[in-house]
């Protein structure tokens, strides 16, 4: 479904991604792990056309993503749940969710999806007309996930959804991501919290200083000494 | 929550009341006072349209006076009576020299030309953000001034065009003001407005939601320019003279000040800011000639109004940095619950 081939990405003269190749098959939950500065977010930026790549190719269901303007990505069925949540702070929770469905014309269906999001995240119902900036970190993350789902994506890109959240909330967030996968959506999950991510992933890649170091199933990676030492504190 | 029909009825009643009051004012007050009331109306429309661009979409433009100039000159040339046109602007090309349009089409064409200018300069300039964008739009203002000064055949250069017919009256002004408020209100309560506000909050996230940044920025910029153009045209036909200096930095900055004082991302803020900043300087002007209060006579203090105004501005910005009303909006619920309909509780 999603194919990255030898992608090279530069910020000015600094190379952030070196020959990154990875693939995500339909219905899979793939985790992309790595330490700070390994290039996880850069990979997502390349996929969501927010930063141009220098070499390589990115294809999504046969479409060349390098030629698509960022705002058209939603039409293709890709939703990006950005790092640090990035909800629209001065808009209400409801307005944030409606913005997720910005390009959809099927108003009845949008309403149904909105109800579904509210039933998945009951906290958001209480805070419906409150401005998003006043929510707690966990609530904002739920809102960001809800907003991403409002576009009815085929593929959801999560960028560090557990960042800076309390352990209990992290648990909830991962449960929701699992649920999203069970609904038949494809997920690419970028995480530093390797242990949690491997718990729900089908496959995982490990990035290190801009290159893919390892690839495999959670079992394979969990038994790998290098991974244990670097990410799992073992 | 009040039901929608009740609110509509109230709004209609308020409008009727406004126009009845204006009608009474028109009969009783002197031309001087009426001119101030009309200026208040024009400024409200200008600031509310500026708020759409600057406040709701976050495209901080300093070019509003430039668009006013375009609208004012276009409308002035189009509506100038043929007899006067032959004397004042003898060098006009024939197709322009032989037209005399009535006021309404002149206004609309003035607004449209301003909007087209916004489209042309907006396409390259709106890629910029923040300060860069502000400086670029300021550059547009400079360009417009130079063009108007140099385009002698059309504008009489620095001498300006005088002898315009005083078409603008209370009705033209206040109907235009109401239309502007209505249009801006409709825009910000639609999907377009939601897209614009998303851009203001976080443009990358907005893009990730599928908001076409260029398109929505351009739309806000052009709609703002359209109303600025008409506002400029109304202003020109109220004062009956247009010169390049009528639309200089001073005007741009006074509009931005009104917008900031009232509250940039609020229509109510625009109305409050424009009204206050038009009326207060007029009132303070009385101080300059010296008055006698209860036997104590205050000597004339020239320039005092500017000083008082500056101090007031500084105080407002310190006490209420987001403007007098912030980003809240007026709502009829206000009277029911004794509480602002807060779009944003984060502010306080």
UniProtKB/TrEMBL annotation, chain A:
Q: Name one GO molecular function term.
A: branched-chain amino acid transmembrane transporter activity
For the keyword Nucleotide-binding, the answer is yes
Q: Where is the ABC transporter domain?
A: 2-234
The answer on whether this UniProt entry bears the keyword NADP reads: no
Q: Per its UniProt record, what Pfam families does this chain match?
A: ABC_tran (PF00005)
Arranged from A to Z, the UniProt key words for this protein are: Amino-acid transport, ATP-binding, Nucleotide-binding, Transport
Superkingdom assignment: Bacteria
Q: Which GO terms describe its biological process?
A: L-amino acid transport
Record family assignment: Belongs to the ABC transporter superfamily.
Record's protein name: Amino acid/amide ABC transporter ATP-binding protein 2, HAAT family (TC 3.A.1.4.-)
**Highest lineage ranks of the organism?**
Bacteria, Bacillati, Bacillota, Clostridia, Eubacteriales
From TrEMBL, chain B:
UniProt KW Transmembrane keyword = yes
What keywords were assigned to this record?
A: Cell membrane, Membrane, Transmembrane, Transmembrane helix
Indicate what this protein is called per its UniProt record: Branched-chain amino acid transport system permease protein
Do you know which InterPro entries this protein is assigned to?
A: ABC_transp_permease, LivM-like
> Where are its TM segments located?
9-29, 35-53, 65-83, 103-125, 132-151, 171-188, 218-241, 253-280, 301-319
Give one GO term, molecular function aspect.
Answer: branched-chain amino acid transmembrane transporter activity
- Superkingdom is Bacteria
Signal sequence span is: none
Compartment(s) where it occurs, according to its Swiss-Prot or TrEMBL record: Cell membrane
Q: Which GO terms describe its cellular component?
A: plasma membrane
One Pfam short name: BPD_transp_2
Which species does this protein come from? Desulforamulus aeronauticus DSM 10349
Question: What is the recorded membrane topology of this protein?
Answer: Multi-pass membrane protein
């Amino acid at each position: 479904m999603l194919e990255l081939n030898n992608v090279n990405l530069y910020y000015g003269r600094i190379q952030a991604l070196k020959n990154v190749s990875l693939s995500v098959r339909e219905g899979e939950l793939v985790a992309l792990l790595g330490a700070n500065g390994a290039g996880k977010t850069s990979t997502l930026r390349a996929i969501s056309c927010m930063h141009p790549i220098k070499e390589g190719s990115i294809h999504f269901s046969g479409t060349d993503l390098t030629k698509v303007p960022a705002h058209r990505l939603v039409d293709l069925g890709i939703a990006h749940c950005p790092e640090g949540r990035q909800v629209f702070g001065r808009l209400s929770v409801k307005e944030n969710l409606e913005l997720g469905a910005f390009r959809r014309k099927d108003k009845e269906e949008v309403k149904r999806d909105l109800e579904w999001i509210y039933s998945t995240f009951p906290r958001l119902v209480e805070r419906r007309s409150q401005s998003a900036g006043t929510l707690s970190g966990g609530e904002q993350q739920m809102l960001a996930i809800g907003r991403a789902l409002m576009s009815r994506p085929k593929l959801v890109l999560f960028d560090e959804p557990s960042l800076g959240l309390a352990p209990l909330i992290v648990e909830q967030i991962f449960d929701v991501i699992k649920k999203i996968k069970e609904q038949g959506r494809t997920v690419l999950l970028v995480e530093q919290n390797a242990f949690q991510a491997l718990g729900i992933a089908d496959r995982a890649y490990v990035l290190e200083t801009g290159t893919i170091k390892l690839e495999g199933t959670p079992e394979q990676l969990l038994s790998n000494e290098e991974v244990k030492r670097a990410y799992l504190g073992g | 929550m009040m039901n929608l029909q009740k609110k509509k009825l109230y709004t209609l009643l308020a409008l009727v009341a406004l126009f009845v009051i204006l009608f009474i004012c028109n009969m009783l007050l002197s031309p001087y006072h009426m001119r101030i009331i009309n200026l208040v109306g024009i400024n409200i429309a200008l600031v509310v349209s500026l708020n759409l661009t600057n406040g709701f979409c976050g495209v901080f433009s300093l070019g509003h006076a430039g668009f006013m100039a375009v609208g004012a000159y276009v409308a002035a040339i189009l509506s100038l009576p043929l007899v006067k046109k032959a004397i004042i602007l003898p060098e006009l090309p024939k197709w322009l020299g032989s037209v005399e349009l009535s006021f309404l089409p002149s206004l609309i064409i003035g607004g449209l030309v301003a909007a087209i200018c916004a489209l042309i300069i907006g396409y390259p300039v709106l890629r910029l953000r923040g300060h860069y964008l502000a400086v670029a739009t300021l550059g547009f203002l400079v360009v417009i001034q130079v063009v108007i000064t140099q385009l002698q055949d059309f504008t009489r250069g620095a001498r300006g065009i005088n002898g315009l017919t005083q078409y603008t009256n209370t009705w033209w002004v206040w109907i235009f003001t109401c239309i502007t408020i209505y249009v801006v209100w409709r825009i910000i309560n639609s999907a377009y407005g939601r897209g614009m506000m998303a851009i203001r909050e976080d443009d990358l996230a907005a893009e990730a939601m599928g908001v076409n940044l260029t398109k929505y920025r351009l739309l806000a910029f052009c709609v703002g320019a359209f109303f600025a153009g008409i506002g400029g045209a109304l202003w020109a036909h109220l004062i009956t003279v247009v010169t390049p200096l009528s639309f200089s930095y001073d005007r741009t900055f006074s509009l931005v000040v009104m917008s900031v004082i009232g509250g940039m991302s609020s229509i109510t803020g625009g109305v409050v800011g424009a009204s206050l900043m038009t009326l207060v300087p007029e009132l303070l002007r009385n101080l300059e000639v010296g008055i006698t209060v209860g036997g104590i006579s205050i000597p004339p203090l020239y320039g005092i109004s500017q000083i008082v105004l500056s101090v007031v501005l500084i105080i407002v910005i310190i006490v209420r940095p987001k403007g007098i009303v912030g980003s809240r909006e007026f709502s009829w619920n206000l009277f029911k619950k004794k509480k602002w309909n807060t779009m944003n509780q984060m502010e306080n």
